[in-house]
Amino acid sequence: DQGASAATEIDNLVAACRRARARGDLDQATDVLQTAWIGLKVKGLFSTAIELASDIQVHGALTDHAAGRLKLVVGSALNAVGKIESAEKHLLEGLSRALGAGDSLLVGELRSALGDNLATAGQMDVAAEYYEHALATARRFDAAALSRNVFTCLVALPNSLGHLHPAQYPYTAPPPWPPRPHHRPWHDASPG
Length: 192
What we know:
Structural class: mainly alpha
Strand content: under 5%
Helix content: over 70%
Shape: globular
Oligomer: single chain
């Protein structure tokens, strides 16, 4: 069963994160947490992500890079459970640490998460600014996943603001999608 396999993988990642933290390897614990976050988010296990991040934080100092990644996870999880102010605090701290580390791509990811948090708080205009900066970063680094995520959020914002007509969308150039696995020549034929 694929669902059971995914649950087992998430459990394994959570256990690996705890083991890395227990042996004092906080960078490794943060790496594993960031990987586990994908599954935890899908399964709605936000409190597990928050607990793991808190556990890592209290056990020692993190590098700027690791702290930025950790704050991205905890801030995103807090946003998902509606703790907007706390999420913003963590995301802004993560942004500061990512800037300190000189990690531009992480800065873009944190700006995207801040855009999500601001959109949740109803601050759509400010959220759009964060998304635009994140999209520019994603395009500069050819980060397709971040680019697609941010573009989707930007396109959805006009609906949140009450502008329902697609002609009003200011974003007309979607990010590149991965190539299709199979070439279908009938899609390329022009009507004749």
